[in-house]
Specification:
Elements lengths: L1 E4 L9 E6 L3 E8 L2 E6 L10 H10 L5 E10 L2 E2 L1 H9 L4 H7 L2 E10 L11 H11 L7 E3 L6 H14 L4 E6 L9 E7 L2 E12 L4 E9 L5 E6 L5 H8 L8 E3 L2 E3 L9 H4 L11 E2 L5 E6 L3 E2 L2 E2 L4 E5 L23
Parallel strand pairs: 1-10, 7-8
Antiparallel strand pairs: 2-9, 3-4, 3-5, 5-6, 5-7, 9-10, 11-12, 11-16, 11-17, 12-13, 14-15, 17-20, 18-19
Length: 334
């Protein structure tokens, strides 16, 4: 079951809302002799979560099939990077799982104890059974909050997105059945308007396909922070008329190069399913653009592609928030 993106939180009878967690979607199969954890794309995640599989073996009866989100908390916030570290931890995985334990936030039950498939039951009944199943579960296995109160939704969007790093809310119908692969839910993602510096583009300077964004750190170095979605034709023309080729510069008699490598390393994009370097055109980093970003910010970069809004010729590059380093760098300072 998938969620279709929407620009506002749906309201109406029979609708309920849940936090949208910033983690990995995971389907868990409690088999007679163990546990199997599968990603949304069908990838086997079992070996990366020994802490979760142990908790499920001890709590959930064989035959159950669970749906939820694998997350890691660190200092009161969700930390997506700690999930990614599990893939590359190798022999250090058990130590990592001990130092940064994962949690499995559950929001649906596809099969009950004994393997009885309940996908055709309404969500309200599936959730009631899931709640009973988790009655004696350890804290690592948690039932996601759910509400029909829009005041509670507003509180999640205003406070939880900043304080804990949830991405938004998911809306579902209480009477709906579970249909694998169908986008029968709705997801609203929280966005924040901010500014960044255009440091490069895909395509060409006069016809930019997407903008590569940066911000200065405390030492005055332009750091790569992310890229935009593809630009519309009107926005390509508008921005293309403002960009300039990279100008040779000198500092104390030595040439100063663009601070980003060419092509952009695959690891900078954060997209493990498309690990290809990105060729781009370096531009003179003097143009400020306004963007809309979500809460997924780590390693001083926006993990998801951001929404391009407009150029800001009224702003200097020194008006753009600085990268402060660590998690505090999300909002930066002016």
């Amino acid at each position: 079951m998938l969620a279709a993106p929407v620009d506002h939180v749906p309201e109406g009878p029979d609708l309920v809302h849940e936090p949208k967690w910033d983690g990995w979607r995971g389907i868990v199969f409690r088999e007679p002799d163990g546990v199997y954890v599968q990603s949304r794309a069908g990838r086997n995640l079992t070996t990366y979560f020994p802490d979760i599989t142990r908790a499920i073996r001890q709590t959930i009866p064989p035959g159950a099939i669970l749906d939820g989100e694998l997350i890691v908390w660190e200092r009161g916030r969700l930390n997506f990077a700690q999930l990614q570290r599990r893939v590359t931890a190798g022999r250090g995985l058990l130590r990592l799982a001990h130092e940064c334990p994962a949690h499995y936030v559950l929001f649906d039950l596809l099969a009950d104890a004994g393997g009885h498939v309940i996908r055709n039951l309404p969500l309200s009944e599936r959730r009631a059974r899931l709640q009973r199943l988790l009655a004696d579960a350890p804290p690592q296995l948690t039932l996601t909050p759910q509400t029909a109160d829009m005041r509670q939704v507003a509180d999640w969007l205003i406070h939880w997105t900043v304080a804990t790093g949830i991405e938004g809310v998911v809306t579902k119908r209480l009477g709906s059945r579970y249909e694998p692969g169908r986008r029968g839910w709705w997801k609203y993602r929280t966005y924040i308007t901010t500014e960044a510096i255009a440091g490069g583009v895909t395509g060409s300077i006069r016809n930019p396909g997407a903008v590569l964004l940066g911000r200065f750190d405390r030492r005055g170095r332009l750091r790569y922070t992310g890229r935009t979605h593809p630009l519309t034709t009107d926005r390509r023309q508008e921005l293309g008329g403002m960009l300039s080729p990279l100008r040779p510069a000198e500092r104390r008699g030595a040439p100063v190069a663009h601070p980003w490598p060419q092509p952009l390393p695959a690891s900078w994009s954060g997209q493990f399913d498309r690990p290809q370097p990105l060729p781009y055109v370096q531009v003179d980093p003097t143009v400020v653009v306004e963007v809309e970003v979500d809460t997924a910010f780590e390693h001083q970069r926006w993990r998801h592609q951001v929404r391009y809004a407009r150029p800001r010729p009224d702003l200097s590059v020194y008006d753009v928030p600085l990268l402060l380093g660590g998690e505090e760098g999300y909002f930066g300072e002016r």
